[in-house]
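Checked the freezer inventory, then went back to the computational side. Two predictions to log before the end of the day. The first one is the construct we discussed on Monday; recording sequence and tokens without edits.
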Amino acid sequence: MGVTSRLTWIEEKILEKLLGDASLTLLYQSSVHNNCLLEMTKKCSLQGSTLTVFHLEEDVVLGVFMLEDFPSSDSEKLCNCAWFSLKKNNSSGISALFLNTQVAVDSKDQMIFLNSGSSLFVTPLRGCSLVVDDTIMKELELIPKHKPQTVECEIFRVDGIKKNFSFIKKVMTAEQHRGKLLSALRDYRPYEDLTSEVRILLVGPVGSGKSSFVNSVKSAFQGRLTRQAIVGSEESSITKQYRVYSIKDGKSGETLPFMLCDSMGLEEREDVGLCVDDIPHILKGFVPDRYQFNPCAPFKLKHHTYAATPPLKDRIHCVAFVLDINSVNTLSDKMVAKLKKIRKDVVDCGVGHVALLTNVKDCDEVLDDNFVNMTESVTSLNEVQNVRHMLNVPIGNILMVSNYASELRLEPMKDVLILAALRQMLRAADDAFADLPLQHSASADGSFNESDIENEGEP
């Protein structure tokens, strides 16, 4: 009969994601193998990368990932180690610490972890308590305790990972960066409080991922997958209405001061898809939520009820050109012409803009080790340079994401890219606010002048 881990299925999946889509195979369990040093080293040595997990009484999992082989009996080995703590039944309670650690297994049935000659972690294999340095406990956000009591010790073989410790470090720290981004976005307020909310318009070809990005942002803030915006794979646009989606924080329940505006997809033919003549009306705040697009009959002011002087909060403050990274280089001349026409309208209206490339395959390769900028290998991609020249968008405003599609749970690295993209869109909006004419910036409601209405002739 096989040995069953004390980890729940969900906890095991969390740890596998934490290590970059790895798979875990249980090699050793102290209660089954009688805390035997010989048995432990026999089962775990020369197995490749391993994950040692201690189940503590306080419903906490304390673990050490070793990229190199597990040490054999009576040996000392220098290893790249990632330490982590996981609060059971709480996927957001992950804390990580990375150390170049000397791992020793001695004749006293002890496994000792050393850093710069100082003992950080001593595991009495024949006992039930750990001796852990207080510094480690604090770094892992655990309450310092002289001898944390263990319920079980398990050691897993880790398969299917890159033998690259910087990759492991990036994936394991993604959860912490996700938390920082969420905190910053929850605290966001529009530039000089000129408006109560920022509106971001998503435009792009059919199937580029506009509605999926709406769902991805909402999921990241809710802490669970949501599917409010309808998505599909048809050749024609699934989105038929102009939709304004508010973003609610799943932690506080508050509605955040930014909104995503979803538009009908662009198509090559003139009689289908979003009519580019509708764009200026959307940008200037005249198109209402749930307006039904009609490719053959562009929006006309005299046919609709609209505010005579739409406030600044009803305008679009940033436009995201959403493009599938896999089809950027094959866009037709007609599609490129439409995108350039829209960009001209965006610039003429003084609206901030970015490019959002979707369907990125390797999320970990996009951001640098500090999760601040895109790596040089990414910015030099042919697709990125093509977008830069096509839309005249600075490299810093070309963003990459992998939207949620068929996933069953949130993934920290995807969330980091999604939230980082949203943050850059808000920064582009703030830049546009800072460049507003004095008559707009002097008024909190940012009302239009009468000339704005008079110049809104029929397209």
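The second is the one RB wanted added to the comparison set:
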Amino acid sequence: MAVTENVETSLLVSFSTDPRNEEISTLEIEAEMKVSQDHCGEGSSIILTVNGNTMKVPYSLVNFVGGGAIFISYRGLNSRLNGSILATFGDSNNTATEVISPVVGGAITGPNTKNLDPPVTFTLKHLMAVKPSHTVRCVFWDTKNEVWSTHGCTTGMSEQENRTICVCTHLSTFAVIMAPTEIQEDTGLRLISIIGLSISLVCLLLSFLTFSLCRSLRSAHTSILMVLCGCLFLGQLLVLVGLEQTSNKILCSVIAGSLQFIFLCAFCWMSLESFLLFLTVRNLQAMNFMKSQRSYFPYLCLIGFGIPVIIMVISASLYPHVYGGETHCWLKVSHVWSFLGPVCMFISVNFTLLVFTFCLLKKKLASLNSNVSTLRHTRLLAFKALSQLFILGCTWIIGLFQFGSGSIVASYIFTICNSLQGVYIFIVHCLLNRQVQEEYRKGFYRFYTKKSMSDTVSGSTFPMTAKPSHLSENAKEDGVGDLESRKC
């Protein structure tokens, strides 16, 4: 960046020697010079424009004989800047930060170019669109520390699209950078997360125990629900206890990778559930599979866990450094699409299968030869699967908006929806399921029956085993008398 200093110094010396209004264009730069006294009637500021970028200098800063300003735009310098120069934002390996505006320089004649009051305003156009979950910042080149810095510059958005306003109290070399934003968090959000995830974990555990212990409920469908509950339970437990374990980098990376794998498994198993529902409607005999205890479940496990493993291997081999961050053990914002991309794919496949399922249900129910009770049961399962997809899918879609100005609101909605996942599964698949209700009644009946029998037995034990001694003697005498009478 020493080149920019030399250019600015040379132009400023030339302008101070011969103040003039001039536009300069070379292979490396484009610049404009203006003398303040020649533009004193334009208002309270001198405006210099180069390639659609503007520099607005308050007239009070250059209100003297020979006063003026210079505005320089460097050709192609932004593309030659690499991530190491921008390493002050994030960690030292951060290459996601990009310069999205021309690199410009500003200078004024006069002894003071620091602590300017009023400040100088730059309006810089963007050379590329701002990516989702990224923010823009006005920065200047700190020659002392050889880094980009935001000190002395504030960032604002222009009324014109794809432009940023930089208000700076000093003059140097400036640019607009685009950097990933971190998810904002506050105390209330953390408290809601702890309470909500704790409730969700209890509900998921109860659902898992219900599906695994009640033998009459066992089927391919409940087996999928059981695996889904297990994945969500492990994932949410890991979020609760391990998301902020950033002190150990290796452990943090393992936690981030585990979270990605577990939640990918959850979405994959949801897709398998929708696929089985589709088969059930397409061929009524498939209901036998849904209710059977056949040995197809290992093949489902191969698909349900195999696809996430493949995604994880590809992601970890291509981007091993993105697992674990400075504040959370999760994927870095710049590469979160390695998780959200497959999730969107699973959601699309899931939704498509459910739409086809409802279309087939409509045709089947219109047929007089169809098994109406079976179809209605399947339709109920399809509605449950669709609402389940809505709860889980919308949770992560809302997570996309946890950046920028509305990040706090989106974070609260995301946390609340995430907490509802376990509650929803327990209420819909357990409490509102008649078969499960019957199993709960039988379980409570057996529990209270055993309890009442144990109370009865414990209350009657003493009089049956410890009779008074005189009753025993009388019984013996009566027994002897009866024996003698019998002998007679």
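For RB: The first strand starts at residue 22 and ends at 25. The longest helix spans residues 249-282. Let me know if you want it refolded.
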